[in-house]
Design a protein that fits this description.
The complex is a heterodimer of chains A (622) and B (206). Chain A is of the alpha/beta class. Chain A has 19 helices and 23 strands. In chain B, helix 5 packs across helix 6.
Chain lengths: 622, 206
């Protein structure tokens, strides 16, 4: 990423789609760029923040709605503005988007939205192409890094010519694929300034009503453009049994699988070109739409009278690939398909993501797993992993900030059988500021009985430890105002005596506090205060080791869930009661251990001690 | 897949340097004038999850993903991960595997078991598997972190271009960090080449 920033014009680079978009936004003279971290979109803003600050202002916003509003303001002010988010982020930002489409833009405004097709790191799989239809704005879809780069420049021209926000729809397989990109030079954008115009920018009903016909008229003009834009290309091909209509990364899969077939490639996939589609239909025996996730184009083509196949042959869930397209299309043609010979895979244990060694969340989840009679609503972040082994201490995850409202609903809607259940909500610092604060306010205002565990690790952890108001550093890691969570939650209506700040590495304190607070019929907030191990605030301590002679094989340390603890041998023991118990003798990987001391605390025989090299055979890892 | 495209699948777990190694391989392919695409699923992978990095290069690369049964080389940073991904190898493909066993918490908790002999299972499936201990080699050269360069050394003689091209990309990467580190990486690269060569003659049923 760093290589791109100072790179000269007309040079070639291996860039991810995200890095290519950032480079192109900078070249297009974007003045303001805002976003909230989220896989697979994060690196767009991260890369942009490395460009000269006199050229471009970048920020981590507290959520996607605010980031779009910042972008709208910058566009109104006459600057080119850029906004990047993951697919679910645009749900949060939908409110400003749906009115932005009425006001239109002044300086060009591009919203890059990245769909996590295949759901590597998201709570749902949704298709952002719908926003084009819903908001009546154009959708551009690159097929690789070079196209992503080229489309950003095009998008700004389009945005200003039609005074429309443009959605650049990315997917994980564009964002995170690296390919060769030929970059160009930066052309500063001429800012013509803001002109006061209430009928244009103040969307009261009377004004908005006059903007509605303009929006539909603009959509018609964009539809005409879709017939002649160089982004929409009909490649005639020679094998005309099947003609394909496709967009985004799916285009590459089509070309790979069917190199000789006619293809209508939609770089601008909304509005799409009906005449071009008819041309394709005329030249091929069969039309197949290749689109990931939803059958949007397929349904619209059929509604327009073009008989198109799609999801009758291809999956609706997850990513497509040439090896998925080939058998699907063969079935449509009633042909046999033989995949390339390959060794049959053998089942191997799963390797789910885990919390890091010394992760402060481990302390919280270990304690939660030891408490009974709780219902725990969770949230989005690393701590969603608390739902997994060995903790199994999360009962719900919906979306950013939902732990709060869901907790209140669990409290108010409880059955008679659950009347003694205590409700706990678990949320991280960044998620709390993103969308959790309003939920907590709702809990205090409506007198809910909820214990909130606010895991403040001073970072947006899951996306790689980005800065936020919780650690008091901006996107450039420069000092910025730092939020005080005790003051904030007190201002949101939590009683001062119900607010506690605790070290999550001190298990007995945390245990006692959680047990006591969950007994009280009021709102409590317990704030943990250890930093994420991925950020510079984290200072590793000396590692520990297991004294083999003292280890009794009780396995208590494994229940902490630390990935640095390994089993050396297993055994069985018959207790005095006659009950047989499993034993697991352990060792600590001293190269991974950073000395948080969590595993010491449940170790009854006190077999865990500071690491002394002469006593240990170090383990092997690359 | 076009026959002129080379497919290399690199697999391991988050934090091992799989993505960096693939990036260096990609740089070497670019230096040789190839079109290149490299892809992996990132995101939660840095939390100890599975990481696979797909590298494709040739005159023109379209789809970035390597289909099952089409990889020419599988570069495995961990034994069970190599076993997990062996189905991606094309017939006659080569697996170069660091025989490290990195055991995840779900196995330590007793919920799943780690295969006794993943490399033996690969060989039994008919895969030409070359295994070596990259960590020990790295440690003998003075730094565990050299393991990544050992892995690159291992693949160096199995690429459609000379090993020197790859080595110069590694050297370039460490050039700013001092002559000593460059030298250590040169040694690690050479040791990886030797390890892959010495172990490739192992009997198929070893």
């Amino acid at each position: 990423m760093a290589a791109v920033m100072p790179a000269a014009a007309q040079s070639r680079h291996l860039l991810s789609g995200n890095e290519a978009v950032a480079r192109a936004a900078w070249e297009a003279g974007v003045k303001v760029a805002a976003g909230y971290p989220g896989t697979p979109a994060t690196e767009m803003l991260e890369a942009l923040s490395k460009y000269p600050r006199e050229d471009i202002y970048t920020e981590w916003s507290v959520n996607e709605k605010v980031s779009l509003e910042v972008s709208i303001g910058a566009s109104m002010a006459g600057s080119r503005a850029f906004c990047a988010m993951k697919h679910v982020g645009l749900n949060v930002a939908a409110d400003p988007l749906m009115t932005l489409t009425l006001t239109g833009v002044n300086g060009g405004l591009v919203i890059a939205v990245a769909d996590d097709v295949g759901m590597s790191s998201s709570q749902n799989e949704q298709d952002s192409r719908f926003w084009g239809r819903f908001a009546h704005v154009p959708i551009l879809e690159p097929a690789d890094s070079q196209e992503a780069y080229a489309m950003v420049g095009y998008a700004y021209e389009l945005s200003e010519e039609y005074q429309v926000p443009v959605i650049l729809r990315m997917t994980a397989r564009i964002c995170h694929v690296k390919g060769i990109v030929n970059v160009g030079a930066r052309v500063p954008h001429k800012n013509l300034g803001f002109t006061k115009d209430a009928e244009r920018w103040v969307m009261v009903p009377g004004h908005a009503k006059r903007r509605l016909p303009l929006m539909y008229q603009r959509e018609q003009e964009l539809r005409k453009l879709s017939e002649k834009t160089p982004l929409n290309i009909l490649e005639p091909g020679t094998d005309r049994r099947v003609g394909f209509i496709t967009s985004g990364p799916a285009y590459m899969h089509v070309r790979e699988a069917f190199p000789d077939a006619p293809v209508l490639k939609l770089g601008m996939s909304y509005p799409w070109p009906l005449e071009k589609a008819k041309e394709l239909e005329a030249m091929a025996d069969l039309v197949v739409v290749v689109e990931e996730t939803e059958p949007i184009l397929e349904l619209e083509l059929n509604a327009a009278g073009i008989k198109a196949h799609g999801k009758d042959a291809l999956p609706r869930i997850g990513e497509l690939a040439p090896e998925i397209l080939k058998p699907g299309v063969a079935r449509l043609l009633a042909k046999e398909f033989t995949p390339p010979p390959a060794v049959a895979p053998v089942p191997v244990f799963p390797r789910p993501p885990t919390l890091c060694a010394s992760c402060p969340h481990m302390g919280a989840y270990y304690v939660l797993s030891q408490l009974r009679n709780l219902t725990i609503s969770g949230d989005i972040g690393c701590y969603t992993l608390g739902a997994g082994h060995p903790w199994n201490s999360l009962d719900s995850t919906i979306c950013m900030g939902a732990s709060m409202g869901v907790a209140l609903g669990l409290d108010k809607g409880r059955s008679e059988a659950d009347k003694n259940k205590r409700i706990v909500a678990v949320i991280g610092d960044s998620t709390f500021m993103h969308m959790g604060m309003q939920g907590l306010l709702d809990i205090t205002y409506n007198r809910g009985i909820v214990t909130v565990l606010l895991l403040d690790n001073g970072a947006v952890g899951m996306t790689g430890g980005q800065n936020s108001p919780a650690n008091g550093r901006d996107i450039h890691s420069q000092a910025a105002p730092r939020i005080s969570f005790p003051k904030l939650v007190e201002a949101l209506g939590v009683k001062p005596e119900r607010i506690h700040v605790v070290d999550p590495y001190e298990l007995p304190t945390l245990f006692k506090l959680l047990r006591e607070e969950t007994k009280i019929d009021d709102v409590s907030v317990i704030i943990t205060n250890r930093p994420c191990v991925l950020i510079e605030d984290f200072k590793p301590l000396k590692p520990y080791m297991v004294d083999e002679d003292k280890c009794t094989g009780c396995g208590n340390c494994i229940e902490v869930g630390c990935p640095a603890i390994h089993v050396t041998r297993r055994g069985k023991e018959v207790k005095a009661s006659g009950k047989e118990v499993d034993l697991a003798f352990t060792r600590i990987d001293s190269t991974a251990c950073t000395g948080c001391g969590l595993c010491l605390q449940p170790c009854a025989p006190e077999a865990i001690m500071p690491y002394a090299p002469q006593n240990v055979i170090s383990i092997q890892s690359v | 897949m076009t026959s002129s495209t080379t497919n290399i699948l690199v697999c391991g777990i988050g934090g091992q340097g799989v993505m960096t190694a693939t990036e260096i391989l990609a740089e070497a392919a670019i230096a040789e004038g190839h079109d290149v695409k490299k892809t992996e699923v990132a995101g939660m992978s840095q939390r100890g999850g599975v990481v696979t990095s797909h590298l494709r290069f040739g005159p023109r690369v379209l789809s970035p993903q390597i289909a099952p049964g089409t990889a020419h080389v599988l570069l495995g940073f961990e034994a069970a991960e190599a076993l997990r991904w062996m189905g991606h190898l094309a017939p006659g493909g080569l697996a170069l595997v660091n025989d490290a066993r990195l055991v995840p918490p779900v196995v330590e908790l007793g919920l799943f078991s780690y295969p006794d002999d993943p490399l033996g299972m690969m060989r039994k499936a008919g895969i030409h598997t070359v295994a070596f201990d990259a960590a020990s080699i790295a440690k003998s050269l003075g730094d565990l972190r050299l393991g990544n360069t050992v892995m690159l050394g291992a693949i160096a003689d199995h690429l459609p271009f000379s090993a020197d091209v790859l080595l110069s990309c590694i050297v370039k990467r460490f050039a700013s960090k001092g002559e000593k580190l460059v030298d250590m990486n040169r040694q690690a690269f050479a040791a990886g080449r030797t390890a892959a060569r010495d172990n490739s003659a192992a009997p198929a049923t070893a």
